[in-house]
Write a structure and sequence with these properties.
Layout: H1 2-62, E1 64-67, E2 70-73, H2 77-83, E3 91-96, E4 102-105, E5 123-129, E6 132-144, E7 149-159, H3 161-209, H4 224-257, H5 259-274, H6 280-313, E8 317-320, H7 321-330, H8 333-337, E9 343-346, E10 353-356, H9 358-375, E11 380-387, E12 390-397, H10 404-409, H11 428-438, E13 442-448, E14 451-459
Parallel strand pairs: 9-11
Antiparallel strand pairs: 1-2, 3-4, 3-7, 5-6, 6-7, 8-10, 11-12, 12-14, 13-14
Helix pairs in contact: 1-2, 1-3, 4-6, 5-6, 6-9, 6-11, 7-9, 9-11
GO molecular function, one term: phosphorelay sensor kinase activity
InterPro entries: 2CSK_N, HAMP_dom, HATPase_C_sf, HATPase_dom, His_kinase_dom, HisK_dim/P_dom, HisK_dim/P_sf, Sig_transdc_His_kin-like_C
Catalytic activity: ATP + protein L-histidine = ADP + protein N-phospho-L-histidine
Length: about 475
């Protein structure tokens, strides 16, 4: 119950984080859109009402006539009809002569920027009408008559209420559309993220529903990111399954294989105690042979467990097979197994590099050599070679080797040949095969012109970093 609750909490947290990121992006985008909408609305309102101001000022300027050498303005109603669209705004105007003298209108509308005589195009400026912000425009009408020559300046102003209302209306409309679009995107993102996370939830549920001892691979379906995670989990479960399998085999093998030798040793020891003195040397000799056989069995069982453990836990490193062959020979274990057997070393001057674990390779080669010493014919040789892009380490004896039917069974756990004298545990070549499988290699057993050879072949590494 606690595990399920924890997983669900993690899923909700992941969803909330993603949704929080999406919401943040939408919020930042909304702020940018609002600022842009406000700027656009303000600019659009300014351009629209500025045109109305220019139209009104132009109408007033067109109504000016020169009477007895004096400009006279007959203000048309149409001029203020344009400004009536903004019914809540205040309006002011002024008509001034060439020297800035007020001819008609309000004195407060006098332009405050620059010299009026310098104005040749409609000129906009900001000021105030009775302490309220306003927008003004000044247009010029030039007269060149006999009794009057010069510029007449018409200034029209309007407060900003309608402009601000239009800008806010445009901004509000954009905000509503943006908000609705953001909500739609947020809901869409929620359902898309939930859909994308569904394979994770399904995988979590499958893991929770599994038996604790079920380490079979999980089905790799769903998005590519989930498939990568499932493959990684399957590889981990595969390694764990091999470790658990090795442990189970070790326990079952120990329970099954040690029962008979231990019983035999106990029986020989009891007979040695109860038998007369004439048969004591024979009893002790059998007891020693049984003890040696038990020791060999234990060594090979532990060796096989070590090889399987290191194949999943020790990372492969570049190894020179010549060093492995030389070390196995220098350990001199063969002198204990077969004191009178000659063992030759046949390695060249060229490195034979493979990517593997040196300890596992050493255990494999030791078992290959022990197998040749027990069942082969002297002399025995251990050597290395390269063949078709593969590094090889081999053990060869001068015998003819086992028959074809025996070759098919050799390499299986606890499989002994008919020629075995009882000292073999049947695990030697099984260890060699386990090492070969761990490092993408293979095991070949062939008859040669000079005897019988067992070869451990691994992919050859041509580029090796020197230490």
């Amino acid at each position: 119950m606690n595990k399920s609750a924890t997983n669900l909490t993690v899923n909700r947290t992941l969803l909330s984080r993603v949704m929080g990121g999406v919401l943040s992006l939408l919020a930042m985008g909304g702020v940018v859109v609002m600022l842009a909408s406000f700027a656009y609305g303000k600019n659009a309102a300014r351009q629209s009402f500025d045109r109305l101001l220019v139209g009104a000022a132009s109408d007033i300027a067109e109504s000016i006539n020169v009477v007895d050498g004096t400009p006279v303005a007959d203000i048309p109603v149409s001029a203020f009809g344009l400004l009536a669209f903004a019914d809540s705004d205040r309006v002011t105007y002024s008509v001034r002569g060439p020297d800035g003298t007020l001819l008609t209108g309000h004195d407060g509308a006098k332009e405050r920027l620059g010299e009026p005589r310098a104005i040749t195009q409609p000129h906009f400026f900001d000021s105030s009408i009775q302490d309220e912000a306003a927008r003004f425009v000044t247009v010029v009408r030039r007269f060149s008559e006999r009794d009057f020559s010069g510029n007449v300046f018409v200034t029209v102003g309007q407060t900003l209420r309608a402009r601000n209302a239009m800008a806010m209306s445009l901004t509000t409309g954009a905000a509503i559309v943006t908000g609705l679009g953001g909500i739609a995107l947020l809901l869409s993102a929620f359902f898309v993220i939930r859909s994308a996370m569904r394979p994770l939830e399904r995988m979590t549920q499958e893991m929770l529903d599994r038996d604790p001892y079920d380490l079979t691979p999980m089905p790799a379906d769903g998005p590519a990111e989930v498939v990568v995670m499932v493959h990684a989990m399957n590889r981990f479960m595969g390694r764990l399954d091999r470790q658990v399998g090795a442990m189970k085999h070790l326990i079952s093998d120990t329970a099954h294989q040690l029962r008979t030798p231990v019983a035999a040793i106990r029986a020989q020891a009891e007979l040695a105690i109860e038998d007369d003195g004439d048969h004591l040397p024979q009893r002790l000799d059998r007891l020693v042979r049984r003890t040696r056989s038990l020791g060999t069995l234990l060594d090979q069982m532990l060796s096989r467990a070590l090889v399987i453990h290191r194949s999943d836990n020790a990372p492969p490193t570049p190894v020179d097979l010549r060093d492995i062959a030389l070390k196995v020979l220098e350990d001199r274990d063969h002198e204990v197994l077969a004191p009178h057997t000659v063992v030759d070393l046949r390695i060249g001057e060229t490195p034979v590099m493979v990517l593997a674990d040196d300890i596992s390779l050493g255990e494999a080669v030791k078992n290959m050599l022990a197998n040749a010493l027990r069942h082969g014919t002297s002399p025995v040789a251990i050597g290395t070679s390269c063949d078709h892009g593969r590094g090889e380490i081999w053990v060869e004896d001068a015998g003819s080797g086992p028959s074809a039917d025996v070759l098919e069974k050799i390499g299986q756990r606890f499989e002994r040949s008919a020629a075995s004298t009882g000292n073999s545990a049947g695990l030697g070549l099984s260890i060699v095969r386990a090492v070969a499988q761990a490092f993408d290699g293979s095991v070949q057993m062939d008859k040669t012109p000079t005897g019988f050879r067992v070869t451990l072949s691994l992919p050859h590494q041509t580029e090796v970093t020197s230490s």
